[in-house]
Amino acid sequence: MKILYWTDLFLPHIGGIETFSMDLIPALQARGYDLTVLTSRHEEDLPAMEQMGSICVHRFPTWEALRTNDLKMLISVRRAVTAFKRKLKPDIIHLHFGATSYIHLRTQTDACPPTLTTVHALPERSLLENSLFAKVVRASRAVNAVSRRGHGDLCRAFPDFADQFSFVHYGLGPSERDAVEVIPPSFDEPVILCLGRLTPQKGFDLAVKAFAEVERTIPKARLMIVGEGVEEAALKDLAATLGISDKVNFTGSVPPRDVDEVINKATMVLLPSLFEGLPLVALQAARMQRPIVSSDVDGLSELIIDQQTGLILEDNNEQELAQAILSLMQNPQQAFRMGKAAGKRLEERFGFEDCVSQYEKLYHQVADIK
To answer: With a threshold of 0.85, does the pTM exceed it?
Structure first.
């Protein structure tokens, strides 16, 4: 089966979808599927076509055309993508919903193959009516959420399409390197970790504000923020305003293959996101047996069981986050037990081979193969 795998961004851009795709695609190829990636040419120096291991990646200026709303560029991109689809002749399109899904809709033809859409974070209910997402749902043969909760939200938002919805949890695929040995978290000089894109969605400003409270009680504590994004300058300014710049370490992004080592240096991992699907960093933290403090959004509560595998924030504000961090720091044995429990839950509920098999089943369903 030939599959056009469409995602807004791909490596070398680093994010959860990109990292997961680099595991999922080779695993599906090993089962006999022919996958080709279509993505944005987000940076001008990236080649239009690149072979990344077994994965052939084709880049178009879709993101730039949408960002600038340049009519000539939009028309050019639509023509190029339409021609590419016709030449490739895929059996199905696997679309990861994002801004460039607009280009997918505008390049559908009578001969366009059926679409499986994966949605990683459902838009707010108020944004659904007549939205790009609603149009994608109606144009897809199947829509797949990444959590049970996300699936429920889809069914409530689009009851007429409920029989087309499903969910598949992420799994963590084989590492590019030998498995990293789990080092128990240290509480002597605790390191609090935020890892992900530096965008408003991730709520890292709450982490900085909460850390300012924590540091007053535990002066040896450090906050490590790993990632890049539009919020970096604002977060650094916030740390300076709060007088904690010397205790907040901004490392920039790290390659996916080094994430386990970074988490190994942390005492705990914070995920105070405003919205999410099921962030890959939560699974990575669980693999390294770290307690997780997170907001109560979408799929996070399916991995993080409050008081068992981590702590769930009801209100997700800086005071509540600070109290949660302190409670773990002041009870190391409890934090250690939570990390171990998170690792066990990951193994039991988020298996990679099961994830691959469920996508394989969806591909057959969408292609109408019995």
So the answer is: yes
